[in-house]
Amino acid sequence: MERPCIRISVRNLVEFILRSGDLDNRRSKMADKEAMLMGGKIHRKIQKKMESAYQAEVSLRHETIYEEFSIQVEGRADGISRAQDVVLVDEIKGVYRDLARLESPVEVHEAQAKCYAYFYAYDHQQKAMQVQLTYCNMETEDIKRFCKTYTFEELELWYQKLVDEYYRWVRFQFQWRKRRDQSMEGVEFPFEYRRGQKEIVAGVYHVIQKKKQLFLQAPTGVGKTMSTVYPSVRAVGAGLAEKIFYLTAKTITRTVAQEAFLLLQEKGVEFKVATITAKEKLCLCDEMECNPQECPYARGHFDRINEAVYELWTTKNHYTRDILQEHARKWQVCPFEMCLDLSVWTDGVICDYNYVFDPNVYLKRFFAEGTKGDYIFLIDEAHNLVDRGRQMYSAALYKEEVLKIRKSLKPYGGKVIRELNRLNQFLLELKRECESYEVLESIGNLPVLLMKVMGELESFLEEPPQPEVGKEALEFYFTVRDFLNICDLLDENYKIYVQNLEDGGFQLRLFCVNPAKNLENCLEKGSCAVFFSATLLPLRYYRRVFSTHEDDYAICAASPFSQERRCLLVGADVSSKYTRRGYGEYRRIAEYIARAVNTHPGNYMVFFPSHRLLRDVYEIYEQEFSMPHVHSLCQSSVMSEQERESFLSEFQSGRGTLVGFCVMGGIFSEGIDLLGDRLIGALIVGTGIPQVGTENEILKAFYDERGENGFDYAYRYPGMNKVLQAAGRVIRTQKDRGIILLLDERFCQRENLSLFPEEWSNYQVSKITSVEKQLKKFWAGEASE
């Protein structure tokens, strides 16, 4: 058999093996800007000035043979010169720092050049090589060089030690993957297939084989998580992909995914999965200050991190929050950064959408520019990605923030104040021309102004006069950096607008109306994607906002539950429309609730489109319709994690009748499982249509201009999604039985009825005078079973 070849870039190899020193967020993120500019304009400018014997961008590679496999390291040297007797390898780095303070080359930069020098010497039988580091200040274009000569024997010994250390990691990974793949032989789906589940499993496996995208609309109870995880795991075992990314929007769905992988492990599948938890939840310190002055785990972090990760990776198969924190304490490293490093070596990663899609947060270990892997993206509760996508690819600049940082830095003067003044003047001119909000054609020369502000902030941050001032300057630096990142994405899918805010502030916003192209750019870093949700209707809408492809697959799975176990009523004589709001309509809604919950004891949730409407109706319900045997709870606008758990703990069986008043689209309307008689009814007030606002109106106009129904995209579809999510809280298993009341006459309109899922085809129209009779008949059917 042909020996497998493991490939890695020169840069990734040296940055992984040779990293050392402190973890320091005050500096690390600034490197992003430098990395973005490397190999670009400044490289070409320096290369053009060199003599004719200087060859730019020389591709080099070297393969080291081991018993089980070979390791091929490859990359491009910035320049190679044969002008002298000894061949010179040149590595160019664009930086913003003061070159006078640079006393020696950065170790990993020099290591890159030494790799290229060894590769060249090996291929051309050179006895010695010169290694040169060329640093260029991005603003002044000043240059500083470091040059050293190495014999071939020195380079060979150094390189062999470097690649042998990497071999230790790859050898374990190679052996683990063989063990993992063998463990999957004969492993069947861990449950008896429900209706439609087998087709989903086959469909997911098929799109992985074809390296396509799948949109999966699957009602509650189908078992979407295992139906997507199982075929994906088997596909990895069959060599169709190298890693699974299970992406979620909420903590609760990450837990469900963990349980699915754990169940497969219990069935004998060897599969290592890392869950990336938010940094603030993993942090071991009281204050999250990621620098060596404030955090003992940041001090010398990179000196210990590789051994910490290697031990954890080679001794355990799954990694809980407690395990990560305990291991981080043992090795005195940052648990969050350790988790990110660990994810490189695991077979699966469970994480928030941000780590794949957000341009300011994404995992550069996997998704940096120019990289691609055989990754499977499983996107859970994909309906949440619409708003999240728009948020991630949008950015705002606030005039008040500019004034605030200018005030903080003014005592120290300098060029930074001059550039902040220019930025403030730019925003002031826009504000003078804006009455409420105004859509702009372009942002003019704003990027140039912001680049100059960034440059001056970086100089200021080299030695900030006070820690607190330095912290403020760094935060504003990141704001500017993030804004510029979005500037680079501006295209026909964006609208630029300025707005006077209610609090007196003024913003300039880059609003990503259609995130499909940006999401697609991220998904192309992998090989296939599955978007799945219980509320992915209408599919055409989601395909338009998630994908630019015309050949995506789609599956609409049927509900596995009997329609007879659910009573679906539409209240045709009540409405939450703004024109109808007032005491009379609120009282009617409250009476509907009272009549419904009094027909059968149990737990109910009532969902409202806003906190204000909830409070108004709740007050009338409590004053005029409350009964001694009915207990009620009310969701508050801000709830701690403990308060949420306490709220849900009230929904226990056998405690009479409980009515929870909640907000549609809030923390209790999706992602919670109240099985059996923990919840027997959901009453949904209104069609969930979002409030009229600047961005919704811009969104509506955007799609109207393109011949679509803008109202559907901006209001109707998002609203119905909230309704479907809230309704999905009721029937969670085949044994569940319950009622759903849609309290708004607008549900009877053809446009809304067309959005009902197939399993809602047996809905009945109800009125306040008939609702009790209809519900009693349904509950009487339960008694006769």
TrEMBL record:
It comes from the Bacteria. GO terms for molecular function: 4 iron, 4 sulfur cluster binding; ATP binding; DNA binding; DNA helicase activity; hydrolase activity, acting on acid anhydrides, in phosphorus-containing anhydrides; metal ion binding. It comes from Blautia hydrogenotrophica (strain DSM 10507 / JCM 14656 / S5a33). SMART domains: DEXDc2 (SM00488), HELICc2 (SM00491). Residues 183-435 form the Helicase ATP-binding domain. GO terms for biological process: DNA repair. The keyword Signal does not apply. This is Helicase ATP-binding domain-containing protein. The keyword Isomerase applies. The lineage of its organism: Bacteria, Bacillati, Bacillota, Clostridia, Lachnospirales.
